[in-house]
Design goal:
Blueprint lengths: L25 H17 L10 E6 L10 H10 L6 E5 L3 E6 L1 H7 L2 H9 L2 E6 L7 H14 L9 E4 L7 H12 L4 E4 L1 H9 L3 H31 L6 H13 L13 E10 L23 E11 L2 E2 L2 E7 L3 H19 L7 H15 L12 E3 L6 E5 L13 E12 L5 H4 E12 L4 E3 L8 H4 E2 L2 H24 L14 H25 L36 E3 L4 E6 L2 E6 L3 E8 L5 E7 L8 H6 L8 E6 L2 H29 L17 E9 L11 E5 L3 E5 L6 E5 L3 E7 L6 E14 L2 E11 L17 H32 L11 E2 L7 E3 L6 E5 L3 E4 L6 E4 L3 E7 L7 E8 L7 E7 L3 H10 L4 E4 L5 H10 L1 H6 L8 H15 L8 H18 L5 H15 L3 H15 L6 H16 L12
Parallel strand pairs: 1-5, 3-4, 5-6, 10-16, 27-30, 35-38
Antiparallel strand pairs: 1-2, 2-3, 7-8, 8-9, 8-10, 11-12, 11-13, 13-14, 14-15, 17-18, 18-19, 20-21, 21-22, 23-24, 23-29, 24-25, 25-26, 27-28, 28-29, 31-32, 32-33, 33-34, 35-36, 36-37
């Protein structure tokens, strides 16, 4: 939408004036130089003005925002922008007039230029104190000598006429060129056509820039505007521009893995609302507040650059849109789609605009005067490529590889509203589109533009609130009169904490359902399954030739550990078998003292890699072979060697497979010289290193870009890069035996031969094992008191050392280069902790400011709260000693995390913690089958959204519905006697027992035992009651055996959760 590019210097993609820090990609230079000369010679008369020589002068660095053809040619050809440099391309020579530093960097081009197009590169070095006049004369003389002998006309020199010379060097060059007698001709059209078709590397850069632009629009701009509207803030357009620009320039902060050094903005992001709209390319955001009343329109546009290649996206958002606005937008959307579909190789540029215009004429002819006069422009190294406009008069032909900013809009439209700021509105849509062989590809499709995704309604929420308010008042009055003692309000009318929490949870439920609906609407196919690249048996070769087989040492089994091979004597020859082909090897001895070695191989039909056998379906396989020996000692040695070889091979291959899945990381830059690393001594690490030797403590050091832990053994070393740290924790020893530093990482690393995302360094503050003496020690024993004092001092000293290390590393992370990583040591809050079973054993889980962690017992638990969708508290009910917590993540492909057996006494503190961290929680009486629930949601997201989202977990809503239905059906019902009352109470007890079932068998048995204990009556008491009831009914008492059988059956019916009420015996 706007043409406000960044400055042309210092150099984009680096400043080439600094010498050896920069290298030119010679392959790209050769390809592009060849493309330049080919295009120039083939289109010399048509596009290059019959120029014999091309002269390009790059101006000095400037703070002004602009796009220049000379700068674009520098980047396209050399990869960098060289300010204050003159390039002259001739048939036989290429002349560079520049400083000494630039010349030293350009020296590498000589060989490539000669091989690519057969020209010589000539350097004209200008000293700092020199004005370059002498060098310019030499260049002009070379141009004269290059012209053909006998030609009377002066050579024609192509130059960029639109660029005004800046600086003394370029002004002097322009004067000399003008007075040289050469015929000057503008070559802008030739450069435009040369840059129009992009190669694969250029397309890749544009796709990355487009992804960043669309990602920021979807995941930053839209949530930011929604937050402003929801909280009714007053925010200016210019402040939104500044925030969005910061997000674009820091892609890692918003979750886009692009290097910030390669990212720039095409123009300052644009926000327009309040009836003042400008769809011209020079538009900008004003300082007025964002206007979001009814029938208001908000236009957002932004563009980013990656490696100097541009992208653009623009969207229009509606607040309570009326019919005229919705209809106009639907027409604009159809026209925009028609323009994109018309971008096919072979079509004319004008056909794109005509396709959009025909849609408007057909569906809304009255809007034709308001339609913009073009459908977009070419985009690439320049935000707007001259001569590449998609208007009705451009007769250029579309080609595969061209890229366009397809931009359409309606301006100066009117609607009937009471607010003057909403009466005048405009609409705009823009996407970056790549022309392919088959049609076109929208590179910014990540940001949705459909009407349902850009429309917001505030009226419906207000009307629903107004309709619900009277009902809530009536219900509250009824409850206050009937159950005044059970209300949640205090005597003075203040709202209790529980009521405030419920209100906040209701707001969170609305926000969470809306957020989930938006996320499910944009769910893609995902990244697919991750497969481990493991070498198959067919890729494992023992020997490449017969000559490599070691000489036989008699007809005996040989083990070649170097090549992971065993050689077996078969029919007088030593036959090699790779150890991977072995399934088992064993030895046994018979009664005649004969020893046998039995070797079984992997064959088709055995549980191994079947793909190996499919490759050789016609082969003959050896299944088993046995050897006899009279020497039992030799037999056992051979079997042991083969088993050891096989075990080492499997371990080595599994470790290779683990390392193959690791993400490559940068190398650690050590702190040397005056920058001494920050050290913490005598630490132990978890997971531990492999090996059978004695475990050693090590040192943790903080270097320039990461941490290094090392012991005295050279192979025991762990490097943790700062960019790979997701969370860092410091937990001092309070009631624990260790003080620790824990790092939870983004990507796995190898610690020894273990692949892990969690690395922990710790120190034991006291001895884990104490000597137990025969006699009991007195509490006033001086030795005991002194020992306790030493332990306290040791613990305090260790905690202080760790705290000092943490403070110094936090200061290091506070430097500007690390601020984008948002790193800081987090400390668990013990007062919010609770016991639970996240894996197999009960542990103490502790919340932090951003996570829920358990860092003492292994396996460790680190749950990032920002990744949590909802929390469901399960088996919540009266009489329950504990409950479970199910944590559902925003990524529905992740398994639901269960924390079982949490004491019921912790439920209120957990609810308070979840509420303060803005996490929506639900309560249920049963454990949910979460794999089936998530599968249902992902299979039909729309049905999940239509049915109220997560509200199916709302226990209070279902209870209120059931209460209302029971009140309607049971009106006028009066219990007849006490027997029916007790009977109904028993039913309720049975229902609660049946609903509190858990999935594991152990918990079922525990619940049965608990329920039997809670009944409170022994077998003898029940037997006496049964006998008494029989006597009252006049029946003969049963025999002892019959009574025992009945009482046993009765006890099972009371304890069993599935027993029916009709089968209960009555007394």
């Amino acid at each position: 939408m706007a043409e406000k590019p960044i400055a042309n210097g210092p150099l984009r993609k680096g400043n080439a004036g600094r010498g050896s820090e920069y290298t030119i990609d010679l392959n790209t230079f050769s390809q592009h130089l060849q493309a330049l000369y080919t295009h120039w010679h083939q289109n010399k008369d048509e596009l290059w003005g019959s120029a014999n020589v091309l002269a390009i002068a790059t101006p000095p660095p400037s703070e002004d925002l602009r796009y220049l053809k000379s700068s674009s040619l520098n980047i396209w050809l050399l990869g960098y922008e060289f300010p204050e440099m003159v390039m002259v391309f001739g048939v036989k020579n290429i002349h560079f007039l520049c400083s000494q530093r630039k010349a030293s960097l350009l020296e590498v081009l000589k060989k490539s230029a000669k091989e690519a197009v057969g020209v010589d590169v000539v350097m004209h070095v200008k000293a700092k104190t020199d004005d370059g006049s002498t060098q310019m004369d030499a260049v002009l003389r070379a141009i004269h000598s290059q012209s053909k002998q006998g030609e009377s006309a002066a050579p024609t020199v192509g130059y960029i006429a639109r660029e005004v010379p800046e600086g003394k060097l370029l002004e002097l060059w322009a004067d000399k060129l003008k007075n040289s007698g050469f015929q000057l001709i503008d070559m802008t059209n030739g450069l435009t056509d040369l840059f129009a078709v992009k190669d694969k590397s250029e397309i890749t850069c544009i796709k990355k820039a487009s992804y960043l632009s669309a990602f920021v629009m979807k995941n930053f701009v839209v949530p930011k505007v929604e937050q402003v509207i929801d909280e009714e803030k007053k925010v200016t357009h210019s402040s939104l521009t500044d925030d969005t620009e910061k997000a674009l320039l820091s892609p890692v902060k918003i979750g886009v893995k692009l290097k910030a050094d390669n990212v720039e903005i095409c123009y300052p992001p644009i926000f327009q609302s309040g009836g003042k709209f400008d769809l011209r390319l020079g538009a900008s955001s004003n300082d007025e507040y964002l206007y979001y009343d009814s029938a208001s329109v908000i236009i957002c546009a932004l563009g980013s650059r990656y490696s100097s290649y541009c992208s653009n996206v623009a969207r229009t958002y509606f607040i309570d849109a009326d019919g005229a606005q919705s209809r106009a937008y639907e027409v604009l959307l159809k026209a925009h789609e028609a323009a994109i579909l018309a971008l096919k190789p072979g079509n004319l540029f004008s056909a794109v605009y005509q396709a959009a215009l025909s849609v408007v004429k057909r569906d809304a002819p009255e809007l034709v005067p308001n339609l913009t006069k073009y459908a977009g422009t070419g985009i690439g190294l320049e935000f707007r490529e001259p001569g590449m406009s998609l208007n009705a008069r451009n007769e250029r032909v579309l080609k595969s590889g061209m890229v366009f900013n397809v931009s359409l809009g309606f301006q100066n439209l009117q609607t009937n509203t009471s607010s003057p700021k909403s009466q005048n509105f405009s609409l705009a849509l823009a996407d970056t589109v790549i022309v392919t062989d088959d049609g076109s590809n929208v590179a910014t499709s990540l940001s949705s533009k459909y009407l349902k995704d850009v429309s917001y309604s505030l009226k419906e929420d207000e009307e629903e609130e107004e309709e619900e308010l009277p009902k809530l008042k009536v219900e509250s009055n009824i409850k206050n009169t009937s159950f005044s003692k059970a209300t949640l309000r205090s005597d003075n009318g203040e709202i209790s904490k529980e009521e405030l929490r419920k209100q906040h949870q209701a707001e969170l439920a609305h926000q969470k359902n809306a957020e989930t609906a938006r996320r499910l609407a944009g769910v893609g196919s995902g990244t697919g399954d991750e497969h481990t690249n493991v070498r198959s048996a067919s890729e494992l070769i023992s020997y490449k030739s017969v000559n490599e087989i070691p000489p036989p040492r008699g007809m005996m089994i040989q083990v070649d550990q170097k090549n992971d091979t065993i050689l077996l004597p078969i029919y007088g020859s030593m036959v090699p078998f790779h150890v991977s082909t072995l399934k088992t090897v064993s030895s046994q001895q018979d009664t005649n003292r004969n020893c046998f070695i039995r070797i079984i191989f992997n064959v088709p039909g055995t549980p191994s890699n079947e793909s190996n056998f499919l490759k050789n379906q016609g082969a003959i396989y050896l299944k088993e072979v046995s050897f006899r020996s009279k020497d039992p000692r030799h037999t056992s040695e051979v079997v042991q060697l083969i088993k050891t070889l096989r075990r080492n091979f499997i371990t080595r291959e599994s470790e290779k497979a683990e390392r193959a899945t690791l993400v490559s990381q940068e190398k650690l830059v050590l702190a040397v010289n005056k920058y001494k690393p920050i050290r913490l001594l005598n630490l132990w690490v978890r997971p531990v290193f492999g090996g059978r030797g004695r475990k050693l403590s090590g040192t943790l050091e903080a270097h320039v870009n990461g941490l290094r832990y090392s012991t005295s053994r050279p192979d025991e070393r762990v490097d943790i890069m700062f960019v790979n740290i997701k969370h860092a924790f410091f937990q001092p020893a309070e009631k624990e035996m260790i003080t620790l530093l824990h790092f939870h990482l983004h990507n796995h690393i190898m610690v020894g031969n273990k692949k892990t995302k969690d690395v922990q360094f710790y120190v034991e503050v006291m001895d884990m094992v104490q000597t137990i003496r025969g006699g009991k020690r007195s509490a006033y024993d001086p030795d005991e008191i002194e020992e306790e004092q030493r332990e306290r001092e040791r613990k305090n000293k260790i905690n202080v050392d760790f705290q000092n290390f943490v403070n110094r590393v936090n200061d290091l992370w506070g430097q500007p280069r690390f601020r984008g990583l948002h790193l800081e040591f987090d400390q668990p809050l013990r007062e919010l902790g609770f016991h639970g079973v996240p894996h197999k054993a009960s542990t103490f889980l502790v919340p932090t400011s951003s996570c829920l962690v358990e860092l003492i017992e292994t396996p460790f638990l680190v749950i990032t709260l920002s990744e949590v969708e909802i929390v469901n508290l399960e088996r919540i009910g009266l009489g329950q000693k504990n409950f479970d917590m199910a944590i559902v993540f925003k990524d529905f492909k992740r398994n639901v995390m269960r924390i079982d057996s949490i004491p019921s006494a912790s439920v209120d503190s957990i609810k308070e913690w979840l509420d303060t961290t803005d996490i929506k929680y639900y309560e249920s009486r049963l454990n949910m089958n979460w794999p089936a629930v998530l599968k249902t949601i992902t299979d039909d997201p729309q049905a999940f959204i239509d049915n109220g989202g997560w509200e199916f977990l709302n226990l209070e809503a279902t209870d209120s519905d059931s209460e209302e239905s029971s009140e309607d059906t049971d009106q006028g019902y009066d219990p007849s006697d006490a027997e029916s009352d007790s009977y109904s109470e028993d039913d309720d007890d049975d229902d609660s027992e049946s609903e509190s079932l858990v999935e594991s068998e152990d918990e079922e048995e525990n619940s049965e035992e608990d329920s039997e204990e809670e009944e409170g009556k022994t077998w003898e008491e029940l037997e006496r009651e049964a006998s008494k009831a029989d006597k009252e009914k006049g029946e003969e008492p049963d025999s002892e055996d019959e009574r025992r059988r009945k009482m046993k059956a009765f006890g099972k019916s009371r304890a069993g959760p599935s027993s029916a009420a009709s089968k209960r015996p009555k007394f």
